[in-house]
Write a structure and sequence with these properties.
Structural class: mainly alpha
Shape: elongated
Radius of gyration: 21 Å
Number of helices: 9
Strand content: under 5%
Distance between the termini: 49 Å
Length: about 240
């Protein structure tokens, strides 16, 4: 019964994250238009899925993000439309496969931090407070990594498939994006988009995941164990203080 309840909660949370992702994808909440190139915040719900439900959920949410991104290439996004006209298959890979992989990798980062917290609790009976701090930092770093994975995979695919296109290079120059070298193109897009996306993902993912943790909606087993250890440590200190008095 308990396992079924947990499964139901996981499905409900996944549904909520999917809905949030779709809402962000088709409203100004998800994108900040920066000329012809858009700054995206959609890796935030992807990272939250990886934190709450693991790498598979991260990959699924990344795929949904990718599908919405690919759909925008059919007219509403100038940069995506350009890439679609040049190489539809590469655009599909860049939008969907790269985002799915980024979500999966973000889930692995979240799992790494979760295992660190679990081991910390097992090795040290007084690690409750440390585990909470590690959890908060782990959530934020997972958000940061999700955005960085997205940027790196996107740029890698872009350079592999589009760098040799005269149409791509000429259009980038018309838009004022440096194309004197691969490094110049990478730096131009990363400095205007990637850094802002990473900073936003770091703080927003960390804040939302921490709130979900405090509400007992994610990492509930770690939350209970850490809370118990903190309570026991507090009681021990009170007993020591009374004994000294």
């Amino acid at each position: 019964m308990k396992q079924q309840t947990q499964k139901t909660k996981s499905i409900a949370l996944m549904g909520m994250l999917c809905a949030l992702l779709l809402l962000m994808a088709y409203t100004p909440l998800g994108y900040l238009r920066n000329g012809s190139v858009s700054i995206s915040f959609l890796m935030i719900p992807v990272a939250l899925g990886g934190i709450a439900l693991g790498p598979t959920a991260g990959a699924i949410l990344g795929t949904i993000f990718g599908i919405t991104s690919f759909a925008q290439c059919f007219g509403s996004d100038a940069f995506g439309s350009l890439l679609l006209d040049i190489n539809p298959f590469a655009t599909f890979l860049m939008c969907i496969v790269a985002r799915a992989l980024a979500g999966f990798l973000a889930g692995l980062v979240a799992s790494f931090f979760k295992n660190l917290r679990r081991k910390s609790l097992e090795k040290n009976s007084e690690a409750g407070g440390k585990q909470v701090a590690l959890g908060v930092s782990g959530y934020a770093v997972t958000g940061l990594c999700a955005a960085l994975f997205n940027t790196l995979l996107f740029m890698t695919t872009l350079i592999i498939f589009f760098w040799g296109s005269t149409t791509f290079i000429d259009t980038m120059n018309e838009w004022g994006i440096a194309t004197s070298s691969i490094f110049a193109l990478f730096a131009a897009i990363v400095t205007t988009n990637g850094i802002l996306e990473a900073i936003a993902a770091f703080f927003i993912t960390g804040a939302i995941a921490s709130a979900l943790y405090k509400a007992g909606l994610i990492d509930k087993d770690l939350s209970k164990k850490a809370g118990k250890q903190i309570e026991e440590a507090s009681e021990d200190k009170e007993e020591e203080a009374e004994a000294e008095a």
